[in-house]
């Protein structure tokens, strides 16, 4: 699967460690949405699909269909509101669960919803 960074490659390994994985889609769609800041386009890093979700992965914020954004902690810290707005648009318009993973969450196994 094509990835844009080592962090995304680590994320694929992270997804694969959890039982029930059915599919991983890289850059699965581009969403156009409007908010107080204007009109935007957003292409998430991954859409991950599980046929069943264990309690461990539910605790991380995943559901059967989950949009995942991969960011280094330093990039996320620069503009966390932008990431939050993008993922809120995904939840509002498409109904998917959303999770942000940084190198910290990939290392500890704790994701940000």
What is the strand and helix layout of this fold?
Elements: H1 6-16, E1 21-26, E2 31-35, E3 38-42, E4 46-50, H2 55-59, E5 65-70, H3 73-78, H4 80-94, E6 97-101, H5 103-108
Parallel strand pairs: 5-6
Antiparallel strand pairs: 1-4, 2-3, 4-5
What does the model show?
This protein has 113 residues and is α+β, with helices and mostly antiparallel strands. The protein has one domain (6-108): 3-Layer(aba) Sandwich (Trna Endonuclease, Chain: A, domain 1). The chain has helices at 6-16, 55-59, 73-78, 80-94, 103-108; strands at 21-26, 31-35, 38-42, 46-50, 65-70, 97-101. Strand 2 and strand 3 (38-42) form a beta hairpin. It is globular, with a radius of gyration of 13 Å. The model has no long low-confidence stretch (mean pLDDT 91).
Labels describing this entry:
113 residues; two-stranded antiparallel sheet; single chain; 38% helix; alpha+beta; 6 strands
Within the CATH hierarchy, at the fold level, what is the topology? Trna Endonuclease, Chain: A, domain 1
| N→C terminal distance | 24 Å
Mean pLDDT: 91
Tell me which CATH architecture applies here. 3-Layer(aba) Sandwich
The fraction of residues assigned to DSSP E strands is: 25-35%
Low-confidence stretches: none
Approximate helicity band: 25-40%
The CATH class designation is: Alpha Beta
Q: Can you write the helix and strand succession as a string? A: HEEEEHEHHEH
Number of individual domains: 1
How does the overall form come out from the CA principal axes?
A: globular
Biggest β-sheet, characterized?
A: 4 strands, mixed
InterPro entries: TnsA_N
Domain TnsA endonuclease N-terminal: 22-88
Pfam families: Tn7_TnsA-like_N
Protein name: TnsA endonuclease N-terminal domain-containing protein
């Amino acid at each position: 699967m094509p990835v844009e960074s080592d962090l995304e490659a680590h994320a694929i390994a992270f997804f694969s460690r959890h039982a029930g994985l059915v599919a991983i889609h890289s850059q699965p769609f581009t969403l156009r949405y409007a908010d107080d800041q204007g009109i935007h386009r957003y292409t998430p890093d991954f859409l991950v699909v599980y046929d069943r979700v264990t309690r461990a992965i539910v605790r991380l914020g995943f559901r059967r269909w989950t949009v995942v954004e991969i960011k280094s902690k330093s990039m996320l810290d620069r503009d966390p509101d932008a990431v939050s707005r993008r993922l809120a648009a995904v939840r509002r318009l498409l109904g998917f669960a959303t999770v942000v993973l940084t190198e910290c969450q990939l290392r500890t196994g704790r994701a940000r919803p």
